[in-house]
Amino acid sequence: MSLSAAELRSTSRRRAGVLAPAAAGVGVFLTVVALRLAGLLDGPVMIGVLGLLLLGFPTSDSLSRRIVLILPPMLGFTPLLWWIPELFTVVDYGAFVLAAVAGAFAAWAAWAASRPGELGRVLPRFRPLDVLPVLTGAAAVVTQLPVLAAGSADRALSLLSLNWDNASHFTMYSTLQARDRVIPLLGLAGDGTRWSFQDYPQGFHAVLATASQLAFGPVALGPEAAVVAYARLSALVTVMAAVLVSAGLVSLPVMRRRPLVATPVVAAVSAGWVFGPGAMAYQHGFPNFYLGVALVVSAVLVVSTMAKPLLPLPLAALGGCAVGVAQNWVLLLVFLVPLPLVLFLPARAVRWRAPWTGWVTASVTVLLTVAGVSLALGQISAIEVKTVIEATGGVPDPNVVEVTAILVACAVLSFRAARSRGAAAGSLVRRRLPLLVLAAGALFILWFGGVQLVEAGKLSYYVLKFLIAFELVALVLAAVALMIVLERPRLPVRPRAAPPGSRLPGVAVAVLAAGAATQLFGSAPVPWGQPLLGASAAAREAVDQQEAIAEVPAHIHALLRAVEEGGGEPAIYITTEDWTVFNPLLAQQWYSALTGTYTEGGWELSLSMFPLVGNPSAVDGVVDAIREQAPGTRFIINP
């Protein structure tokens, strides 16, 4: 049976509609790979190019919504590439991500070119409320100025050495970017022991390593370049996390329906994340933790807007959030426990209707999510429960009054929201979302805190960090619940348009209220800030950071000389300078990190250095003790 001329033309158009985008996508992908291999697409500007390409996808008409749908999959799923290094022997991870995104954008552009008006969707609609994520990003940049200004290794190291955990996170980042795979895949080190941090999920560090390759190429950076790159890339991810939270709030329909009320509410939340309890995380050596909490919030906000479970883009964003949370700080998964209930209920068949492509996309997303979460759980399974309970670290003490006020306000507003019948209330389950998430966090911290008090006699590292996360999550939940409570039922008749200029007083009040809200957690770290409630946590820490880069301490210069003298070989580094300022164990950690020799064997030897803390005269005894354990150990003392 022969086809008619009209049927032939229709078939030809369908083939062209598939072949042209596919050809454009593959062509651009191969072109980007070729240019990268030729060294023509290097430089930090490539991070900006990647960002613009991602925001160019018309995933939503709203700029804020695009950020919420695009960032979590990138931050969550990209680290999984580092588990399959065999696929990246020709091109590095950063180049692959850039080429894949550019190819996908070219394929979409080729498809859209044959449809009138589609290409115009590249530019999102920018509403006044969308300025809030931009301002949040600007405020976050202000807090990161000391880090961004530390353009030399001594300044960057002086800043990072203020907080203990930075040495560990730098080690994981530098190991990944130097060896092109996650640490569990490295096998044994040269001393016959395991590389350190095999049981620590490395999502944040893989994101940084991918960005490092994108900006500086696939060649491993030297210790001085690596420490500067780590500091600046960490600052960049911190800014992105703050923007993600603000964009998630701004993209909610309940916020966009009442922008004048939403403006000070979002400003207050952003102030908490940038200047208040958020600063207690990102400025104390926990950037991966800060990113993990931001992804928790994003997951909650994405689910609150999902009318159907099988929507491809929101589901991919949710999956990226879950993987990102697991790959950064596993305990935060507790906050995500109620989300399936909200997503799957009410259980109506109509909510599950989708084309076969939707089911395929959902299946792939679920498989990737399960794989990413399972890898993280598998890594931490080697950690003893006793170690988690008794762990100690440099966690800042939470502000009890502030935490209590936020949690009480969140609880009251969440109860009110659960009973709301306003226009934004939606289903019964979604009205109760803030309350469910709050309850999950409260039950966990009560249980975990109780276990710590019984077993260790005090609250320590993990409970205190979880409390910071709880405060940040509750701050967002309180904002959402407040807007639901304030929402009014929709009027059956559309109201008349307000006369020009009648909204100006309301706008002025909203702007003034937003400005006041930014001071709720204290002043910003700028000299012209006039705090209503004293200096913020970010401002207080900024003082130490400014001092650290204004005059680099002598022990930092000594450490860098030791690294140069060490020639990349393992050694025990000992200095008798500034004992009260630079803990000798921390100095040894930084030496191992900068020389790429951080192993379990080296760590065991460094534990013999405890007698040196506050007692420089113990050098001879420490050296003898270490030589007794490992006779061939090399020492670098007071270089």
Describe the structure using short key phrases.
mainly alpha, two-stranded parallel sheet, 2 strands
Protein topology:
Layout lengths: L4 H33 L7 H12 L6 H15 L15 H20 L18 H13 L1 H5 L3 H8 L4 H15 L23 H14 L6 H28 L2 H4 L2 H16 L2 H6 L4 H17 L8 H15 L12 H6 L11 H25 L4 H6 L9 H19 L9 H4 L1 H23 L5 H26 L17 H14 L19 H14 L3 H13 L5 E3 L9 H12 L4 H7 L12 H11 L5 E3 L2
Parallel strand pairs: 1-2
Helix pairs in contact: 1-4, 2-4, 3-10, 3-15, 4-9, 5-10, 5-12, 7-10, 7-24, 8-9, 8-26, 10-12, 10-14, 12-22, 12-23, 14-15, 14-22, 15-17, 19-21, 19-22, 21-22, 25-26
What do the pLDDT scores average to?
85
Largest sheet: 2 strands, parallel
Instruction: State the helical fraction.
Output: 55-70%
Provide the domain count: 2
Describe this structure in words.
The structure is a single chain. By secondary structure, the chain is mainly alpha-helical. It has two domains: 18-184 and 203-213 and 225-486, no CATH class; 553-637. It is built from 28 helices and two strands. The chain has helices spanning 5-37, 45-56, 63-77, 93-112, 131-143, 145-149, 153-160, 165-179, 203-216, 223-250, 253-256, 259-274, 277-282, 287-303, 312-326, 339-344, 356-380, 385-390, 400-418, 428-431, 433-455, 461-486, 504-517, 537-550, 554-566, 584-595, 600-606, 619-629, and strands at residues 572-574, 635-637. A two-stranded parallel sheet has the order 1-2. Helix 5 (131-143) runs antiparallel to helix 10 (223-250), helix 14 (287-303) runs parallel beside helix 22 (461-486) and helix 19 crosses helix 22. The longest helix has 33 residues, at 5-37. It is globular, with a radius of gyration of 26 Å. It starts with a helix and ends with a strand. Residues 5-12 have low confidence and may be disordered.
